[in-house]
Write a structure and sequence with these properties.
Number of strands: 11
Low-confidence stretches: 1-34, 36-57, 96-149, 182-194, 278-284, 338-347, 704-721, 966-971, 1016-1032, 1057-1066
Oligomer: single chain
Shape: elongated
Strand content: 5-15%
Distance between the termini: 97 Å
Structural class: mainly alpha
Radius of gyration: 54 Å
């Protein structure tokens, strides 16, 4: 029997009962009564007297009989209670598992243990036989042999099965876990020794009866989980438990018997293994280390019963650290088991709290302060781990134990920064996204707490780095903003943190792969940040040393500057959705801010000019940011051609961004350098516009002059000189008052008589040009001098003999009448002086149509005039030699190679006499009146059509240009191509118009987009350049057009070869 009844100790109550018995015996004879009373009195005088069994005390039969009856009553009651508790445990185990032994065998074993036989030597002896005279019939050896022979067969079978394996202790523990799958710590403590399972009995026998060397070897033996599972098929619970052991950090892949008992949560086995270590023949150092490692494992698993068994049975160093991580047992209680897929999260949290409480209950008060602030190799204390884990119950438990030591201890632990990332526990919770922990820390008021320490590590930036919308919203709800903060130091930190968080989001987008999708919650986070004060146009310091380490740090290395705006970084990320979200949200926030500013009681007395000045500064800042972002987007579009970058450009253009002249120069320099360079304030307006000169030849009729002197110098006497303009006025279908030429309308003498001049040869040169069934009387030599196609038609008709009744040649052309008259007017007068429409857009279309007519009829001078009119702001003026005011230079006095070449080519025409060359000048310092965003696409289309013009092949087209500043005069200067480093010559038509149209589109692309959106997508409104993808949408066509303009900017025809490389300030 395993009885706790003390036979050798007499309590005070027992002694009192003995005294009562003595009183009852006073009827006996006096001598006997006297002896009994003396004996009892001697017993009362000795308190806590220890009685030895079988002592030779003289008791009478009545006393001995009562004592024996009480003793055996207590024994029988104990047996009955033990049997009832064992039966209750068996019924519980049989209901929960199918792996226990059969009820029949268990019942037989129990009856063999607790039944009392008739020949039991421990049966109560006969009452007639004195207790002290009983003869002991059996020796101690005989008694042990009988006990051994009475060991149940199931225990012996289990012992034999375990000893047959190579690791008996592991086998006993594993089979114990299989037979008792639901054995808990509470139930194990409640069970009496009589209810111990067979596996525990076998463990006792192996540790005590086997050879000590074998036992020592079994204790230190490490076995893998796979080998353990080969003993017997594991249950589902053990499979799940073993599968989660891979992430346990406090143990290796192989386990000792003690570690296996801890893993299987067998505190009774742990108690047996730990209590018997005094007989182990190993060094005390190894023994202590094994106990410490086992304690770390029990703490990590959260097995409070195993922790209690270890601490009660062994002398363990509580501040022992793991070799790799430096974690103590207290750290492992907070870390918990990493793999908890098959477990209940709430139960795991309770286990961790229970494990920490158990460990703290066994921690001496003298070292509690030190162990609660211990850090691991990463510098993290218990609050770091609890916050990062997100376990609110565990955090409250840790803070409670810290508060028990000192009221200042919790805050001291909460402001400690780790060595790895510099995170405080508060920041660790933000980094892990544990909103419940953050809310608890901000609500709880700690003594002498300075919350600026928590905010100094930029928690909002970390939340943005993790794209944690819920965390950012929680921080703002808890008062993390500028409005509710009174301290200027904290306000500065929060202001930087809010703007930096928006920049952090964009930096993360830069680091993402092209095919990676963006979480829609990111846009909600952008709206939350902007609504609470984030400004996408504000420059933020990128390389701030006080900023915590975040995901966007990898992208910072690719940035050149020290600071940038979130909008600019979003352009680099090609995230047009984020750009649109930021701009839209900021406009709403800015409108609300301006409205609140005007209603502010402190500012309501300010005049309206004050608010307008503040709003103007805000607008200027926004425009500057948009300009920089657009320049970067256009440069990246030219460099990569990415469609998403193009969409970023379109988003910015839709916001009404218009590139300034300085921004265009900045974009051009970036393209030339093939890298994005920062803008320089020294650029200014050093190159602010272009200055053009077009050479035009003036013809005269020397045969019509009175003397040779006037023929040599036709302008010596205008009244006696006759040029082709005079001939035009004499044609019957012309009216001088319809011409837009001051010379024709005012300066020509009304009494000028052409009959006085010798013009008879002109009558022989007349012919009819038939246009739309209307005859125009013209002169063959004059028309043939400037139009190659009409000259060929005249020769062809002469060969065919197409004459009318007056004997004049008749040539028919397929042209509108107005265009034909404008062509003829240019040939005679050198300028289109009538027929141009007043609307700039209509006039542009008319001139472009004339350019195509000039190309078709081989009239390079008309093509040059059309291009000059498109470049000139005063496109409706007359370009003739009289109205332009330009100096006429004869061939003999000319020094310009271009002028000399044009005069020599003009002399080759029969019947024509070139009297000189004058240069019509045009400047484009401001936007052209004709090349606008609405008409630029048509100019580009015509320029592409004229790219292979015949005029550039035969060398009859030359347009000089240079770059000038505003302060330089352009009216009196002449371009010298050889002496001006900024000058050059364009030998192909419409090169200048093409680059000007590209500049115009890049500056005000929104107007073109608005026009394109109004057109039908199937209409051919964007010819040649933008209709590569006929089935693509408007955005795709706009991106194609932008790329074409950028390519034209990169191959700027107005940039001479010696100006191809600009000086870029480093």
């Amino acid at each position: 029997f395993n009885s706790d009844v003390q036979l050798t100790i007499l309590s005070k109550s027992s002694r009192q009962i003995s005294k009562d018995d003595a009183v009852e015996a006073q009827n006996f004879d006096d001598s006997q009564t006297k002896d009994i009373i003396e004996n009892v009195q001697s017993i009362e005088d000795e308190n806590n007297c220890t009685l030895v069994p079988n002592a030779k005390w003289k008791w009478n039969d009545i006393q001995l009989s009562k004592m024996r009856q009480r003793w055996w009553s207590a024994v029988r009651d104990k047996q009955t209670n033990d049997a009832a508790r064992v039966k209750q445990y068996k019924s519980m185990a049989s209901r929960r598992t199918d792996e226990l032994e059969d009820d029949s065998s268990t019942s037989s074993d129990s009856s063999s243990l607790f039944s009392v036989e008739d020949d039991d030597p421990l049966q109560p002896p006969s009452l007639s036989k004195p207790f002290d005279e009983m003869s002991i019939e059996q020796s101690n050896d005989t008694f042990l042999d009988q006990n051994y022979s009475r060991v149940p067969a199931s225990v012996l079978d289990l012992e034999t099965r375990c000893c047959e394996t190579a690791y008996p202790l592991h086998a006993v523990i594993y089979l114990h876990a299989l037979q008792n799958p639901f054995l808990s710590d509470i139930l194990g403590d409640a069970l009496a020794p009589a209810s111990k399972p067979n596996s525990e009995v076998v463990m006792h026998r192996l540790l005590t009866l086997k050879d000590q060397d074998d036992v020592d070897r079994w204790r230190m033996e490490e076995v893998g989980l796979e080998e353990i599972c080969q003993i017997s098929t594991p249950s589902t619970r053990i499979k799940n438990l073993f599968s989660s052991m891979e992430e346990i950090t406090s143990m290796g892949k192989e386990l000792t018997p003690l570690q296996l008992a801890i893993v299987l949560n067998c505190p009774d086995i742990v108690r047996v293994l730990s209590s018997g270590k005094s007989t182990i023949s190993i060094s005390s150092k190894n023994e202590s280390e094994q106990d410490c490692i086992s304690l770390l494992l029990a703490c990590e698993l959260g097995h409070a019963g195993c922790i209690k068994a270890l601490l009660c049975s062994s002398n363990i160093k509580l501040d022992y650290r793991a070799r790799e991580s430096g974690n103590t047992a207290y750290h492992f209680c907070c870390l918990g088991r990493m793999a908890s897929i098959n477990d209940d999260d709430v139960m795991n949290n309770d286990n961790n709290v229970s494990a920490l409480d158990t460990l703290m209950n066994h921690t001496p008060n003298s070292i509690r302060k030190r162990v609660l602030l211990l850090t691991n190799r990463e510098g993290r204390n218990l609050t770091h781990i609890a916050c990062a884990r997100g376990d609110l119950l565990l955090l409250k438990c840790v803070i409670g134990h810290l508060s028990n030591v000192s009221s200042q201890m919790p805050w001291k632990a909460l402001i400690a920064a780790d060595r790895l990332l510099g995170h405080t526990p508060f920041i660790s919770a933000v980094y892990a996204g544990k909103c419940e922990i953050i809310a608890h820390l901000l609500i709880t008021r700690f003594p002498s707490a300075d919350y600026s320490v928590l905010f100094s590590a930029c928690p909002l930036t970390i939340a943005a780095s993790n794209c944690d919308t819920a965390m950012a919203a929680l921080l703002f709800e808890m008062g993390y903003d500028l409005q509710t903060t009174a301290s200027s130091d904290i306000s500065q930190i929060i202001r930087y943190d809010i703007n930096r968080s928006l920049l952090e989001l964009m930096l993360i987008r830069c680091g993402m792969d092209d095919g990676e999708e963006v979480d829609p919650d990111n846009y909600e986070l952008i709206r939350i940040l902007v609504a609470n004060g984030a400004n996408p146009h504000k420059t933020v310091s990128i390389r701030n040393q006080q900023k915590p380490k975040t995901r966007g740090d990898d992208t910072i290395a690719a940035l050149d500057g020290e600071e940038d705006t979130p909008l600019s970084v979003a352009v680099m990320a090609s995230d047009f959705h984020s750009i649109e979200c930021m701009l839209h949200s900021y406009m709403h926030a800015l409108t609300a801010t301006q409205s609140l500013r005007r209603k502010d009681p402190l500012l309501i007395s300010q005049p309206e000019s004050y608010f307008r000045a503040v709003e103007r500064r805000e607008t200027d800042s926004i425009q500057h940011s948009l300009q920089c972002a657009l320049v970067k987007a256009l440069f990246l579009l030219w460099q990569s051609g990415d469609v998403n970058i193009g969409k970023c450009c379109l988003v910015l253009y839709r916001r009404g961004v218009s590139l300034s002249l300085m921004s265009l120069q900045w974009l051009e320099k970036c393209i030339l350098a093939n890298r994005f360079v920062a803008p320089s304030s020294s650029w200014g307006d050093s190159i602010s516009g272009y200055y053009f000169e077009a050479p035009l030849v003036q013809y005269s009729l020397p045969k019509a002059s009175f003397d040779t002197a006037e023929a040599i110098n036709p302008y010596a006497n205008v009244s006696a000189f006759m040029c082709w303009s005079h001939v035009l006025l004499e044609l019957p279908w012309t009216n001088r008052f319809l011409f837009n030429c001051k010379w024709m309308r005012n300066d020509t003498n009304s009494d000028f008589d052409c009959n006085k001049l010798n013009t008879i040869h002109l009558r022989d040169d007349e012919f009819y040009l038939v246009v739309e069934n209307e005859r125009l009387l013209l002169h063959k030599s004059i028309i043939s001098a400037k139009s190659g196609k009409l000259a060929a038609a005249i020769h062809f008709m002469e060969a065919q003999g197409h004459y009318v009744e007056e004997g004049k040649l008749c040539v028919s052309v397929d042209l509108p009448l107005l265009l034909a008259k404008m062509l003829v007017c240019h040939i005679y007068h050198g300028s289109i002086c009538f027929g141009l429409m007043a609307s700039p857009l209509k006039r542009n279309e008319q001139l472009l149509e004339l350019a195509l007519v000039a190309e078709e009829y081989l009239c390079p001078s008309l093509l040059m005039e059309v291009e000059m009119r498109l470049l000139e702001t005063k496109s409706n003026d007359c370009f003739c030699a009289y109205c332009s005011g330009a100096a006429m230079t004869p061939k003999d006095e000319s020094t310009c190679p271009i002028a000399i070449e044009f005069l020599e080519r003009a002399e080759q025409n029969m019947g024509c006499h070139p009297s000189g060359v004058y240069f019509y000048k045009a400047s484009r310092f401001n936007a052209s009146s004709l090349i606008s965003p609405e008409s630029a696409i048509n100019v580009l289309a015509v320029a592409q059509q004229l790219n292979l013009s015949s005029c550039s092949e035969n060398g009859c087209y030359a347009l000089k240009y240079t770059t000038k500043s505003h302060d330089e005069s352009v009216a009196s200067m002449e371009i010298h191509v050889d002496g001006d480093r900024n000058a050059g010559v364009l030998t192909a038509p419409f090169r200048a118009c093409k680059i000007v149209a590209s500049f115009t589109l890049l500056r005000d692309f929104k107007l073109f987009m608005d026009q394109a959106n109004k057109k039908d997508a199937d209409a051919d409104d964007i010819p040649m350049l933008a209709c590569r993808g006929r089935n693509s949408g408007v955005d795709e066509r706009c991106i194609v057009l932008l790329r074409a303009c950028l390519e034209e900017l990169a191959q700027n025809s107005l940039r001479p070869a010696k100006m191809m490389m600009y000086h870029i300030d480093k």
